[in-house]
Specification:
Strand content of chain A: 25-35%
Distance between the termini of chain B: 31 Å
CATH superfamily of the largest domain in chain B: MetI-like
CATH architecture of the largest domain in chain B: Orthogonal Bundle
Strand order of the largest sheet of chain A: 6-7-8-3-9-10
Number of helices of chain A: 8
Shape of chain B: globular
CATH superfamily of the largest domain in chain A: P-loop containing nucleotide triphosphate hydrolases
Shape of chain A: elongated
Helix content of chain B: 55-70%
Structural class of chain A: alpha+beta
Helix content of chain A: 10-25%
Strand content of chain B: under 5%
Distance between the termini of chain A: 28 Å
Number of domains of chain A: 2
Oligomer: heterodimer
CATH class of the largest domain in chain A: Alpha Beta
Number of strands of chain A: 20
Order of helices and strands of chain B: HHEHHEHHHHHHHHHH
Largest sheet of chain B: 2 strands, antiparallel
CATH topology of the largest domain in chain B: MetI-like fold
Number of helices of chain B: 14
Strand order of the largest sheet of chain B: 1-2
CATH topology of the largest domain in chain A: Rossmann fold
Order of helices and strands of chain A: EEEHEEEHHHEHEHEEHHEEEEEEEEEE
Largest sheet of chain A: 6 strands, mixed
Radius of gyration of chain A: 25 Å
Largest interface: A-B, 31 and 24 residues
Amino acid sequence: MAQIEMKNVQKFFGQNQVLKDLHLTIENGEFVVMLGQSGGGKTTALRAIAGLETVTSGKILIDGKEVQDRKAADRDIAFVFQSFSLYPHMTVRENIAFPLRAVRMDAAERNRAVNETAETLQIAQHLDRKPSALSGGDMQRVAIGRALVRRPQALLMDEPLGVLDSKLREQMRAELKRLHIARGSTSVYVTHDQIEAMSLADRMVILHDGVLQQVGAPDEIYLKPSNLFVAKFVGSPVMNVVDVQIDGTRVALKGVETDFSFGEGMLAGLSKPGAGIALGLRPEAILLSHEKTKGYSEAVTTNIEPLGSHDIVDVRLGEAILRVRTASGFVGGEGQTVWVGLDTAQAHFFDNQTELNLRGAA
Amino acid sequence: MAGVRTPREKWTNRTAIAAVFLALIIMLTPIYWITATAFKPRNLATTIPPTVFFTPEVSPFVKLFTKRSQLREQPTQEEYESAPWWEKMVVDGGEKVVRNRKTGEVRSSGYSDRFKNSLIVSIISTVVAVCMGTLTAYGFSRFKVKGEDDWMFFILSTRMLPPVVVAIPMFLMYRVVGLNDTHLGLIILYTAFNLSFAVWIMKGFIDEIPKEYEEAALVDGYTRMQAFFKVVLPEALTGMAATAVFCFITAWNEYAFALIMTNRNAQTAPPYIPSQVGSGLPDWTVIAAGTLLFLIPVAIFTFLLRNHLLRGMSFGAIRK
């Protein structure tokens, strides 16, 4: 197990810069998830740590040793590919034993290690079958087994659950978490699925256009997004963002008669003339009422998505459409008049120009 | 609906089967002709109309492997009786078997040597072309090569010229360096000729092997060379087998270069067989026998590799 550090890492593919001055420290035993859109640089960052991609400049340290110029084979890390990439001409046993053969471990010890890994991952009954005879979940277990059998310094995973169906993905997610807790290996996990990221991560790393957006625990990222990108990228449904005018303790939305009032000092230093300020509200930060309530504004429902445990209701407030999370069946149908209020503690303010959270990041 | 066919579909199906049979008959006719001629007595080989029913005999094969001369006078009864069965056949055909004057051993025709030359040259050049082609294709497939498309086109362009065009200059060059009429000379020629083909075919196959296989091996502690041999090569075998079949057929059947570059030592079967037409009266049965034997190795080789020619056995362990 080891700490992984990236210092000033830059990566160009021709003219195209995919990693921009990346600084990141992954602590020993930590489960870090890199989250971002495709093309955001997360896979490139992971491959750079693995040594499958060279970096243009900067340093990568594993366990305090510089490895950016070392071959992948000499970095003592393991990698799980999205495609699993099990060798079709080898049995499951041979696949798992493959990394051990590279270090010329003797046969008895190798067999013991393979059996032990297979037990842990519950694939012992498949050891003598070919990968093509396995289900997707079992293939993935074998791929993880092949990665773990050598007890590497760190385990790197590139969207390992990406090709599984959603039910299996949920199950494997739980297994991965259990495995991480049991083994405590330093793990770096790349995904574009935020639920996967939030449920697995000790810390999340959000990458966009090769630039690190925010690093933090899942709840920090969710509750205190550092900028508009993170705010909109994390959370489902997407955070509502509307342009507002701030005057003292009051926040005005375009086309809405009543201003929303905030507590004394909550908007201190936010009345920024000119540049413009955006108000960010998660669907659960918006409150609905059937009756006229003080501080609430009148709105009309336009769409309802019943999701069983809760509903997502679209309301037209002034010029904006807001998505609101309500209890199931709270709103009967489209076209109803409701009253909209804000949970001011959960409001976020962003500078429209810099896109930064005006309250600062977590 | 599966299994249920409308009358119209039935007729389409029958027509298709009939067409396939017709094509099959047209394609198999030359094979039948060669086979029949190889077992005919000489006097029935060139009759008009062709003789269909005859008593097959093996004298063409006996004649194929022995050196013979015209019989000037009939052998005595005693001599005839004491000769082995196959020698009687030759005598019955109006020829006698040529023997070494000192040892009395039967002198063989050039056919078996030419056949051996064909095997040596074809097998070695195929192996070399497929190995070099695979390595080259791997390089083009996995590494960034500057001007990759131009190089690939350049490699292919070596096939654009009819080989006969370069035969004379090649012959002159070979004479200078002493490669004419040698096995090595032909092997180099055939390898060079097949290499471009092998590179192109193998590039297609290797492109389809996911890069992740090697990357997994690289991360797991192997060098690229080890990863190539342990992971890529087993996956590429199907493609290599298919490529080998094509290269072997090309080398085995090659005529023009063999005719020009070789005459005695390294001559292969293709220029030898027709050369028998010109020696004395053409004996078509012998030529047919030589041709029939010449067809067999390609058939066996292709048959042995038939499983590899069917694609798809290696796919399924990668999810996309």
